Amino acid sequence: MKTKICLHLLIILLLNGSSFKAKAQEMKFENMRTNMVLDQLIKRGIKDSLVIRAMENVERHLFVPIRLKKYAYQDRPLPINEGQTISQPYIVGFMSEQLKLDSTSRVLEIGTGSGYQAAVLGEICKEVYSIEIIKSLQERASFVLDSLQYKNVKTYLADGYLGLPSDAPFDGIIVTCSPNNIPKPLLEQLADGGRMIIPVGETGVKKLVLLKKQNGKISKKNVLSVRFVPMVDKRGISY
Ligand code: SAH
């Protein structure tokens, strides 16, 4: 009898111990996230309170491969699967801010990758449509986004060069892979008054270009030099 009670006690202690450990781990990630927002975003000039709040909320460590969790809040891009990368937090914040989005916006993302950028947009916008060309990445991102209850974020397995004509026009378009030239279908799917941010360039360092559509006319501005993975078609050939 006594041994049975002792065993029960031991199990309860172990269970409480492991949930205590999980809670402590969660708090550690929360601290890292707060520091990331302060040091990497606010101190570097990100001001949009919706972007700041979104990046305070989204648990970046749940989007990166498990073995890289501990690096999730560091000031750098990280590899995800299939040779792709999740952008450095500052670039995610910077690109999101450039689009001037709010709770009424409908936005299109090309290059779902891990789903992290889509989740950040999901915190800010009314609807997020995100296209990924690699099946395993689209499936994983969709699973993570669903399990975190991002009901306003939809992912699609398709070639993002073509955009998503069925749901156009979009108030914002964010492209997180780099083509050599700006895809025409995306320009056409941008709403009047809308903004698009896209890394463009042939090899190595690309220019992050901000485009605005006003009365049917497009204006362009180079805003930053960046490195991004290439935009490819279904055969893997760069655009
Ligand atoms: N935004 C992502 C990072 C994307 S990395 C995140 O937050 O994690 C760029 C992604 O673009 C890769 O996953 C790559 O597979 C995808 N990609 C490349 N060409 C594409 C295309 N034509 N259409 C859609 N996605 C594409």
UniProtKB/TrEMBL annotation:
Similarity-based family: Belongs to the methyltransferase superfamily. L-isoaspartyl/D-aspartyl protein methyltransferase family.
Residues annotated as transmembrane: none
InterPro entries: PCMT, SAM-dependent_MTases_sf
Major place of residence: cytoplasm
CDD domains: AdoMet_MTases
Naturally occurring in which organism (per UniProt): Paralabilibaculum antarcticum
PROSITE patterns recorded: PCMT
Protein name stated in the entry: Protein-L-isoaspartate O-methyltransferase
Subcellular location: Cytoplasm
